[in-house]
Automatic annotation (TrEMBL):
Domain DM13: from-to ranges: 36-147, 159-263
Signal peptide: 1-27
Name the record gives this protein: Protein Skeletor, isoforms B/C isoform X2
Keyword Nuclease: no
Domain DOMON: 300-432
Species in which this protein is naturally found: Vanessa tameamea (Kamehameha butterfly)
C-alpha cells in the first residue's frame, strides 16, 4: 500500500488555513494593548500602593492600574540612583502640567493609568528605582526597581521618501512611537489634485491603503510644503506595526509620488500620549480648501468657513475689504446676544506694507481704543499671547480671504473664550478701519452684528452660503490657449498642469497634476500639414520602474490617450499614427522613450496667483536626467484625419490637439510675444531651430 500524498494547500481545512495565517500575522505585530517594556509591579508598603510599571521610552514610564489612598501628607513620585529609595532622590511631578508654583501633592487613585516623564533630562539608565515617597516623613509607600540592562523602546530612523514625482523629498523619516511619524525638511509642490499621506500593506504602495491626516489633523488634499518639519499621526487604532509603507499617494489617479518602507523588526515606543506634536509650518501659498461648513453674516458681506482639526479650529474669513480695513470674528462676550464687551475675537486684515495677511487675537475689556491697559486690545499688548496663527491668505477680484487657526481651549482664562464643539454658541463679527498702529479702530453701528448669531463649530456639513460664487467669482481665469504652427522641429517635455488655469479648463478633462509641454508651452494646439515630416525630441522618461516618470510620447485619435494601460479591446478603438510599434508576437510597445526632463516648481504651485502663463513659467525650473532625448519622426500621410492628439502611452490626459491641414491652408498664428519670451529659455540647438522656423512663419 503506497503512502498517501499530503493534501495540497488549497485542500487544507479552512479553519486550519486561518490558524496558519493568523499565526503569521500575530508574529509580525505587537500584542495589543502594548504599553512598552515591563519594569515590574509596585511593591506595596503602605497606603494601598498598586500598579504595573512599563518603560515607554528612555525617559518616560507608564503606570498601569495605579492605586493610592491619597492620605499621605506630602507624597510624590520619586526616582533615584541610590541602592534603596531615600531622601536623595528627585521629584517627578504628576500631573506634568500644573498651574501652581510647586508641584501638587499626589492625590488619591483607584485604578488610574499614569504617564510619568523623568525630569531634568534623566533617563532610565540614570536611575535604579521608582517610588511613591513622602518627603515630610521620609517614608517609602511603595517602589519598583529598574531591571539591570533594561533596553527601553526607542524611535526608529528610516530613510527619506523615495523621490518619484511632484518634487517630493524629505530628510530621514522617524517613527517616534507606534502612531507618530516625524517628517523633516518636507518638500512637495502641492500640484497633485487628490494627494494624501497614505499607509498600507504589500510590497508597493497601492490603492488599497488608508488616508492619514496631515500635521493639522485634516484630511483635505495635501498643500505644498517648502522644507517644513511635520509630524503626522496614524488614524484610529492603526499603528506602525500594522503597515508596510508610508507614501504620498494620489487617490483619484492611483499614483505614488514617493514612499518609505516600515521595517518588520520595528521596536518603537507605544503611543500613550507622550509624543507632543510640533510642526514648523510656513504660510501656505495656496488658499485654504474650504470645509463644508459655511455661514454668511453681516448682511451676507462676511463669509465664515470652519473646520475642526484636532484640538484647534481652522477658520476662513472672506469679504470685500477696502484698503486699511479689517474684518473681526469671534466668540460673543455673552451667550444669547451679541456682546462686544468681554468678547474673544480675531482681527484679520491685509497688511499693505508687506503685502501679506495678518491675524491677531484680541480681548475687549472696554468699548474704547486700546490704551495699553484696557480697551479693544491685542492680547499681546496686555501681556498675553497671540493664539491666532495665519495659515494662508490671498486677494482676488476685490475679495480678501484669510485663513487662520486657533486653539479650541481658552489658553488664557481672562483673555480667551473656549470654542465649543458640543453645541452652538453666540458669535460676533465686525468691519472697521485700522489705526496708525495697524490695530482695530472703532467701527460703525451698521458694520457689526446687531442680532444673536449662533454657530455650531462641531457641525460636519453646516453650509448656508448662497453668495459663495459671487464672492469668489468662479475662481481664477484660465490662461489663453497656445498655438504652434509652421514649426517642424518640436520638443516634448513634462511639466505641471497649471491648476485651475491650465490643463483642465483648456481641455475639459481632469488632470493628475502634470501635462505635456511642447516647445515649453503647456499643451499647445499644434497645426501640421499633410505630406510634411515633423521631428519630436521626446523627453518624457525612460525608467520603466518609476511609472510617475515614464511617459512615452505617441500620436493617436484618442482624446484620452494611455494606450499602454488599455485592454486589447479598448486599444482596438484607437488609431495610432506615431510612437507605437509591435513586436514579433503582436504586442505593442512605445518607441518614443527618452530621458526625463520636467519643468518643476521652484517652491509650490503658483498657478492661482499667476495671471499669465509667462508669469507662471517664471516660477518653474527645468530639471533633466542624464541621457538623450528620443527622436520621433512623423510624416503626415495624405489620408490622416483632420484632428489627432499627442498623448502619453502609459497615462491618460497629458496631451492635447493636433490639427491636420492641407498645404496652403490658413492657420492661426502663434502669439509673437509668447515665442519671444520662450526664446529666453531655449538653449539647445534644436530649440534654436524651432525659434527660427516660428519667427519665419510669422513674417510670411
Amino acid at each position: 500500500m503506497t503512502p498517501r500524498e499530503p493534501p495540497p494547500y488549497g485542500a487544507l481545512p479552512y479553519v486550519f488555513i486561518l490558524l496558519i495565517l493568523n499565526a503569521g500575522l500575530s508574529a509580525s505585530r505587537r500584542p495589543e494593548p502594548y504599553y512598552g517594556r515591563v519594569i515590574g509591579r509596585l511593591t506595596q508598603y503602605a497606603h494601598g500602593i498598586r500598579g504595573t510599571v512599563y518603560a515607554v521610552d528612555e525617559s518616560t514610564v507608564f503606570v498601569r492600574g495605579f492605586a493610592y489612598d491619597g492620605t499621605g501628607p506630602d507624597a510624590y513620585f520619586w526616582v533615584g540612583d541610590t541602592p534603596q529609595p531615600s531622601p536623595e532622590g528627585t521629584l517627578v511631578p504628576y500631573p506634568e502640567d500644573y498651574a501652581s508654583r510647586d508641584p501638587p501633592v499626589l492625590s488619591a487613585h483607584t485604578n488610574s493609568d499614569i504617564l510619568l516623564r523623568l525630569p531634568a533630562g534623566k533617563r532610565l539608565r540614570d536611575i535604579k528605582w521608582i517610588s511613591v515617597w513622602c518627603r515630610r516623613f521620609t517614608v517609602n509607600f511603595g517602589d519598583v526597581f529598574i531591571p539591570p540592562g533594561l533596553d527601553p523602546p526607542r524611535p526608529r530612523v528610516l530613510p527619506e521618501f523615495k523621490r518619484l514625482a511632484h518634487g517630493l523629498r524629505s530628510g530621514n523619516i522617524s517613527v517616534l512611537d507606534a502612531k507618530t511619524f516625524y517628517i523633516p525638511n518636507l518638500h512637495y509642490d502641492g500640484a497633485g489634485p487628490d494627494a494624501y499621506f497614505w499607509v498600507g500593506n504589500g510590497s508597493e504602495p497601492s490603492p488599497f491603503g488608508t488616508k492619514v491626516p496631515n500635521e493639522m489633523g485634516s484630511l483635505n488634499p495635501l498643500r505644498g510644503y517648502q522644507g517644513e518639519d511635520i509630524e503626522i499621526v496614524l488614524p484610529g487604532k492603526l499603528t506602525a506595526y500594522d503597515v508596510d509603507w508610508l507614501a504620498v499617494w494620489c487617490v483619484e489617479y492611483r499614483h505614488n509620488f514617493g514612499h518609505v518602507y516600515i521595517p518588520k523588526d520595528l521596536d518603537v515606543p507605544p503611543a500613550l500620549g507622550q509624543t507632543k506634536i510640533t510642526t514648523s509650518s510656513t504660510t501656505s501659498q495656496t488658499p485654504f480648501s474650504a470645509a463644508n461648513n459655511c455661514k454668511e453674516i453681516l448682511d451676507k458681506r462676511l463669509q465664515i468657513r470652519w473646520e475642526i482639526q484636532g484640538d484647534h479650529v481652522q477658520i476662513t474669513l472672506a469679504a470685500r475689504l477696502r484698503k486699511e480695513q479689517y474684518m473681526a470674528f469671534g466668540v460673543s462676550g455673552a451667550e444669547g446676544r451679541p456682546a462686544m464687551l468681554g468678547a474673544d475675537v480675531v482681527v484679520a486684515f491685509w497688511d499693505s506694507r508687506f503685502n501679506q495677511p495678518r491675524v491677531s487675537d484680541y480681548t475687549i475689556s472696554h468699548l474704547a481704543q486700546c490704551d495699553g491697559e484696557r480697551g479693544v486690545c491685542p492680547d499681546t499688548r496686555l501681556g498675553g499671547s497671540n493664539d491666532a496663527v495665519v495659515v494662508s491668505g490671498h486677494q482676488k477680484s476685490g475679495v480678501t480671504t484669510i485663513t487662520y487657526r486657533r486653539p479650541l481651549a481658552a489658553t488664557e482664562s481672562v483673555k480667551d473664550k473656549e470654542i465649543l464643539t458640543s453645541r452652538s454658541q453666540s458669535v460676533i463679527a465686525a468691519f472697521g478701519p485700522l489705526n496708525s498702529r495697524y490695530e482695530a479702530n472703532a467701527h460703525s453701528f451698521m458694520d457689526t452684528t446687531r442680532n444673536d448669531v449662533q454657530l455650531d463649530f462641531g457641525a460636519q456639513s453646516d453650509n448656508s452660503c448662497i453668495g459663495l460664487a459671487e464672492l469668489e467669482e468662479g475662481g481664477p481665469a484660465p490662461w489663453a490657449a497656445r498655438v504652434l504652427a509652421g514649426v517642424t522641429a518640436l520638443t516634448a517635455r513634462i511639466g505641471p498642469a497649471g491648476g485651475r488655469r491650465g490643463y483642465t479648463p483648456v481641455t475639459g478633462h481632469p488632470s493628475w497634476g502634470i501635462a505635456w509641454y511642447i516647445n515649453d508651452l503647456l499643451i499647445p494646439e499644434i497645426y501640421v500639414e499633410r505630406g510634411k515630416t515633423y521631428t519630436f525630441l521626446v523627453e518624457g522618461g525612460d525608467d520603466r520602474t518609476n511609472p510617475a516618470k515614464f511617459h512615452p510620447f505617441y500620436i493617436s485619435d484618442s482624446s484620452e490617450g494611455g494606450f499602454g494601460q488599455k485592454k486589447e479591446e479598448e486599444q482596438r478603438k484607437q488609431r495610432v499614427f506615431a510612437g507605437v510599434a509591435y513586436d514579433n508576437e503582436g504586442y505593442p510597445y512605445p518607441t518614443a522613450v527618452g530621458r526625463y526632463c520636467e519643468w518643476t516648481h521652484k517652491t509650490v504651485d503658483q498657478s492661482a496667483t499667476s495671471d499669465t502663463f509667462e508669469q507662471y513659467m517664471q516660477t518653474l525650473q527645468l530639471e533633466c536626467n542624464e541621457g538623450e532625448p528620443a527622436v520621433l519622426n512623423w510624416t503626415v500621410a495624405h489620408e490622416t484625419p483632420d484632428l489627432l492628439y499627442y498623448q502619453c502611452y502609459t497615462h491618460n490626459n497629458l496631451g492635447w490637439k493636433i490639427h491636420v491641414v492641407d498645404p496652403g491652408t490658413l492657420v492661426p498664428l502663434p502669439d509673437k510675444s509668447a515665442i519671444i519670451n520662450s526664446a529666453k529659455r531655449l538653449t539647445s540647438l534644436a530649440s534654436l531651430v524651432i525659434l527660427t522656423l516660428a519667427l519665419t512663419a510669422l513674417h510670411r
